[in-house]
Amino acid sequence: MNIHSAHSIYDHDLDKNDANYSAMTPLGFIQRTAAIYPTKTAVVYGDVRRSWAETWLRVRKVASALKRRGIGLGETVSVIAGNIPEMFEVHFAVPMTGGVLNTINTRLDADAIAFILNHAEARMVIVDPEFAGVAEQALHISGRDIPIINIEDPTWPDGHKIGSDTYDNLLAEGDENDEWVWPADEWNAISLNYTSGTTGDPKGVVYHHRGAYINALGNILDWGMGKHPVYLWTLPMFHCNGWCFPWTIAAAAGTSVCLRAVRAEPIFDLIKREQVTHFCGAPIVLSLLANAPDAMKKGISHKVSIMTAASAPPAAILESMDELGFDVTHAYGLTETYGPAVVCAWHDEWNDLDISEKARLKARQGVRYTVLDGLMVADPETLEPVPADGETMGEIFFRGNNVMRGYLKNPSSSEKAFRGGWFHSGDLAVVYPDGYIQIKDRSKDIIISGGENISSIEVEGILYRHPAVMEAAVVARPDDKWGETPCAFVGLKDGATVTEADLIAFCRANMAHFKAPKTIVFGSLPKTSTGKIQKFILREQAKGL
Amino acid sequence: MNIHSAHSIYDHDLDKNDANYSAMTPLGFIQRTAAIYPTKTAVVYGDVRRSWAETWLRVRKVASALKRRGIGLGETVSVIAGNIPEMFEVHFAVPMTGGVLNTINTRLDADAIAFILNHAEARMVIVDPEFAGVAEQALHISGRDIPIINIEDPTWPDGHKIGSDTYDNLLAEGDENDEWVWPADEWNAISLNYTSGTTGDPKGVVYHHRGAYINALGNILDWGMGKHPVYLWTLPMFHCNGWCFPWTIAAAAGTSVCLRAVRAEPIFDLIKREQVTHFCGAPIVLSLLANAPDAMKKGISHKVSIMTAASAPPAAILESMDELGFDVTHAYGLTETYGPAVVCAWHDEWNDLDISEKARLKARQGVRYTVLDGLMVADPETLEPVPADGETMGEIFFRGNNVMRGYLKNPSSSEKAFRGGWFHSGDLAVVYPDGYIQIKDRSKDIIISGGENISSIEVEGILYRHPAVMEAAVVARPDDKWGETPCAFVGLKDGATVTEADLIAFCRANMAHFKAPKTIVFGSLPKTSTGKIQKFILREQAKGL
């Protein structure tokens, strides 16, 4: 009666079919939310308020127009835009054609943008008026003759356009009843994000639908977001697709509060006016809020949750956030891991600790996301995990479905990144006895002085403790005797003063003497668009000292 | 420079590897939670309290022992147990061997259990002392000569064992350092659940790791569970693997509060003592709590969330739950959909409505889970969706990753269930203009009287409104003139009385006359172990009237 086999009874007649197997994609999230909560606000931008039904209508129209204009499976559509509603919409509309969304860092220069447009083989570019100038230059440099879609934004003073075609034309052309593409394979590319690349040409990180789906849910799970978050766009959407949050907010039936420029006043205004519950940003954003005038901070009585990454939030910042009633979650990830994939999962017992102890615990990057399957700190050669002693440094490795497909048209870099079946992050960390990891440095940022490794992050941590210091970055300075010595670049707080000698003495009083900087340079620090200090520039400066 | 193709730049050198592709499985959840929250309580059972570290240790030991005893890929391990810690543990330990967990309904008779053991080709059976008698009989009937593992429970008065081998032996034999099996393929079977089958032989529903993973997360997302739920096991774990909640609680780093018997007193005691935040159950469980003495209900000040399914919670029950401060979520699913896959997603605005209106809205099964990709009500022949008018009936169809692989060794039933690329639920429903669905009946429960369809659920809804009625079930009674007429079986509340004529008059006053029952039979109703009224028994009775 039964078909028996050498294998197992489960190997027979239990195959995939259209009813029981569906490609995982975040595109289903917006479809569902628009159907269930059509009148709920999806997007706020100045005076513009659009419901999920309206947003879904616009998204379908744009997808339809893109398809009619020939965008299809595996074709790149580049976008240069700020955190405006159209930028949110293309996170759905482009993949709904089968195409791949390539959001470009808006602070890149024309050469870098031209490189990306060519490397990505962009078939179309969508441009926000704020960046029309640099986009036009980039297109000229690239020599690409592709359709340009101008987003028109009445709130943007300079209405410069490249040609005459507009996003509104797409809306007018598109038919919301056209069929859109549920991916045939969840492994299909959904987006392409170029790493900011401190040196050399940027690399194109390819995301797939499966990863975008699962990390979007991971954000809800590990941040404990609940339903209907009101999310403020302080984090650029061009950055790892806004850490997957456009898709997360769609899944959670939340509201996206758009924001062109990260300034304290509009942030506080929107937190109050829109009752913002969640936002993300580098510690520099938190610092901006902490240092805002008291009057601006008043009048917030609801709970606000912040996710921060890029560097550990200093104790003083955490204390200011605490006073505001803002709850800070520290996360970590890379462009290659869809944004955050590691989180400093909090323990309720830790709430009873004093602020400095809390800050020490929260400075750690933490543990894997629920949807990340492997995280380890290990020897970069042997892949042997380091002991969990809080001291032995190793490289951070990731494994799981929220790790990129690879670098576009760059098999050698992909192979290197995936050697041994783990993604090599290039970040150096220790593991504490409780399994939480803490980053000590980027591999390339480590300073080797007299044969001893010095973590630039450790030295920076001490500098940040000095009351006059606003920001600090430590790099290696070539030295005949020691090989390298630590060289600190320091920005001071408004009105604060301190001498080089005093600051070095402060460091020596707080750490092993050989780790203390030998040189200090005062001034403001060069940063990437996401608030990361550009150490490669400082490293060049240090060489020239 | 670039490899170009007829297809797309994304088709090259961006393949799956161990770093970026990992089989989705709920087994990673317990590993992660035990690592991050080792001292947090995982399981409570009477005086037994075990942390996640202890539970994970036990799970690894049991998995190791099962492997050493030869359990491997695609082999069935059957379990007959109540909601006790060992039952929770085997949800991880068995799949960690590559084996398939077959939890058996503990209220089945020996013949039915014997059928399952044979059909599932069980290689081992794990037995709770409460069910040792029936298990022994079933094994005898089945003729299977397989290892029997006795769970020993000091709190269970009758320590009957089948043979001498015990779960403690597995714990003693197993080595927690043995490697366990992360599934090579997320499509591999994780469990086998036999449908209660109102007639004919039960069918074995096969779940895979992918579906168990995604529906476990779906529970957190759509119930808005947050982190660290304290979950009371009022729902049998043998029932669709407890609606995937063993895996959900592991993912959410919660606590499983075990419970052998569903009685009001221990439920209220545990809610208070353990500060239970969540539990699930059929409306009969809610009714049990609503009708408990007031003294028992006192002393609960924290929020308790209940998920209910199987039938719509009546207004009176919802009102009682409201008074207790219990929040009720109405969900719907089948064994074939990993338990709940549809939920009556609540709108905050609805909180302002009066209780009867709230009950009317909440009686609807609702909308698809975030992780279910398709839900429709359609013509069972043409698969044409019905209009969303709240009136036109159709069959409910599911599509997505939380739909079963199929029925074990039953390709014809699987093919029928999946015809047209949708899972045919056999439930009849309408769709309201807002897209929410409401079940009107099982296909086979519909009554056809004088050519008119009568929904048995609609008639029952009216009966439940009568103050004397505790429970009601309506089935077709064969009739020479009308073909069929509605026949109601009614259980009255303690001390309440009503005549057949009065109750029929009450129905006629509240609905179309042709729908009112022609016959009423008073008495208590036969139920399945999960609280579902067994209409097939009543149908037989009605035939004999």
Automatic annotation (TrEMBL), chains A, B:
It is an enzyme of class 6 (ligase). The keyword Ligase applies. It holds the Pfam family AMP-binding_C. Keywords: Fatty acid metabolism, Ligase, Lipid metabolism. NCBIfam families: PRK08162.1. Gene3D superfamilies: 3.30.300.30, N-terminal domain of ligase-like. GO terms for molecular function: ligase activity. Residues 458-532 form the AMP-binding enzyme C-terminal domain. This is Fatty-acyl-CoA synthase. Residues 31-408 form the AMP-dependent synthetase/ligase domain. The keyword Ligase applies. Its EC number is 6.2.1.-. Belongs to the ATP-dependent AMP-binding enzyme family.
